[in-house]
Write a structure and sequence with these properties.
alpha+beta
């Protein structure tokens, strides 16, 4: 097995890779990234997030679809990151094609810090299948598999 240096990315580097922009960026920092293979990310579930005003009043729960989106964004970064590059290398965007066997095992609430982990299971052409696991303090909150494809897409210049 070849040793690879694990990569860490801050918010600015993540934003340079993702086609998404705030408030639709659901990962705060990436670490233990092995390009094209696996990565982990942190996501702080901010109690001030406006979603908690309506999901659900009096008993705020972080929507499961946001957990899937966070895993999808981390998968995109894992596949598209290239060492020694300043930002996005091309105009590719990722399209979520399928969510398979994604199970929500525990409720995510405001103030939690999540660890999202993805592992590339298979790549074929522009399609990728990953396994994803979302934890809070070693407790599994959700897990499953995602399939996504990469396609050419228009990306605006960023400051």
């Amino acid at each position: 097995m070849k040793f690879q240096k694990l990569v860490r990315l801050d918010k600015k580097s993540i934003r340079a890779i993702l086609p998404h922009q705030p408030p639709f960026v659901y990962i705060d920092e990436v670490f233990d990234l092995i390009p094209g293979e696996s990565a982990k990310a942190h996501k702080y579930v901010d109690p001030k997030d406006p979603v908690f005003a309506c999901h659900f009043p009096g008993r705020p729960i972080y929507p499961g679809i946001f957990l899937i989106e966070a895993a999808g964004q981390l998968a995109f970064v894992t596949v598209c990151y290239r060492p020694n590059s300043e930002g996005a290398l091309d105009s590719r965007v990722g399209y979520l094609g399928s969510v398979k066997s994604f199970t929500f095992r525990n409720v995510v609430t405001p103030g939690m810090t999540l660890t999202i982990a993805v592992e590339v299971l298979i790549q074929f052409g522009d399609a990728t299948k990953v396994s994803a696991r979302i934890l809070s303090r070693e407790k599994v909150m959700a897990d499953g598999e995602l399939y996504f494809t990469l396609a050419e897409g228009r990306r605006e210049a960023r400051s």
